[in-house]
Automatic annotation (TrEMBL):
Name of the featured protein: Uncharacterized protein
Amino acid sequence: MDYLDLRDLAQELYDLVDMKNTDALSEEDAARLEMLLDLQGQLPTETLSEYAENESTMLPEYRFTDYAQELAGEKGYTTRDSHNPLDDYIDWDGWADDLKHDYTEVTFNGEPYFIRAY
């Protein structure tokens, strides 16, 4: 899946701030820094790295239903190794919508993502 790792983004933010302090920031880097600062501002913690200590994975919205289905298998709610005919009758979109109550929605690079809320 195309998940993003907040630990990587936090490190990138740290590096870009350091580059900004030494006046070594390109226009592209400055735009990326702005995106990361915007993301950080959407979280209920002071910094990206603080939030990443509890949950590091950002899930893209367009893959959230797939994630919900994988999670159900990991938790043992459904079988993962062989096809269970009942899986075809599960409302995976509904299950995903219910799961979203436990996640914080953020926007990064113009795209919606979900991060587990703590």
